[in-house]
Specification:
Helices cover about 10% and strands about 40% of the residues.
């Protein structure tokens, strides 16, 4: 479904719903081709920033990625270039927020719902 601002994809599993998005869609991208990933159900991590050219390090380090589940405080996935993998409860949705100081992100808010097997992504401004 697409309402002009939000895309929702439902599939047979959360992994399948995430794989519906082509790489070119930049879903869960926090900088260029660096992305938030779900390597296994209930685990979120982010690509490491090693290998980013020195001239871009300050810009990449200004990106913050957090995940939040209902009733819990936001948990850092990426802060100042440091990746902290986080586990989440598979019985409720988790919201991933990507904030960048200097670069626009096409999908700054993505909700993963492991119960209904949906990914809901909101377009940035």
């Amino acid at each position: 479904m697409y309402d002009g601002q939000t895309v929702t994809v439902r599939a047979a599993s959360l992994t399948d719903a995430l794989q519906t998005f082509a790489d070119e869609a930049l879903l869960l991208s926090y900088y260029a081709d660096l992305r938030v990933r779900m390597p296994e159900p209930g685990l979120l991590t982010a690509d490491p920033v090693q290998g980013v050219p020195d001239v871009l390090t300050e810009e990449v380090n200004a990106v913050t990625v957090t995940m939040t589940q209902a009733g819990k405080p936001p948990q850092p996935l990426l802060v100042r270039g440091l990746v902290t993998p986080q586990r989440f409860d598979l019985t409720s949705p988790v919201t991933i927020e990507i904030r960048a100081a200097r670069t626009a992100n096409p999908w700054p808010r993505v909700v993963l719902d492991p119960v209904n097997f949906t990914v809901t992504a909101t377009l940035g401004n």
